[in-house]
Design a protein that fits this description.
This protein has 67 residues and is an all-beta fold. The chain has a single domain, classed as SH3 type barrels. The chain has no helices and 5 strands. It has a 5-stranded antiparallel sheet with strand order 4-3-2-1-5, with no helix packed on it. The radius of gyration is 11 Å and the shape is globular. The mean pLDDT is 93.
Length: 67
């Protein structure tokens, strides 16, 4: 993880990867849950400046503002 903060729904984040979205700001919308009900380890990020939603690991974003 790139920071010591635990991700929470509503946190503002800076996308680090993938390259096409790097540098974009997004909002954590949910923790990704698999069909068996277990967490995948990814977080669903809505990118503010693009019409896109990403599924990212904690290493692919940095929390910039706790809500």
């Amino acid at each position: 993880m790139n920071n010591s903060k635990i991700p929470q729904v509503g946190d503002k984040v800076l996308v680090l990867n993938p390259a096409y979205a790097a540098g974009s700001v997004g909002i954590i919308r949910a923790e990704e849950i698999l069909s068996d009900g277990k967490p995948s380890g990814n977080w669903i990020i809505e990118v503010i400046s693009h019409d896109v939603v990403l599924s990212l690991t904690e290493n692919e974003f940095k929390i910039i503002n706790k809500e």
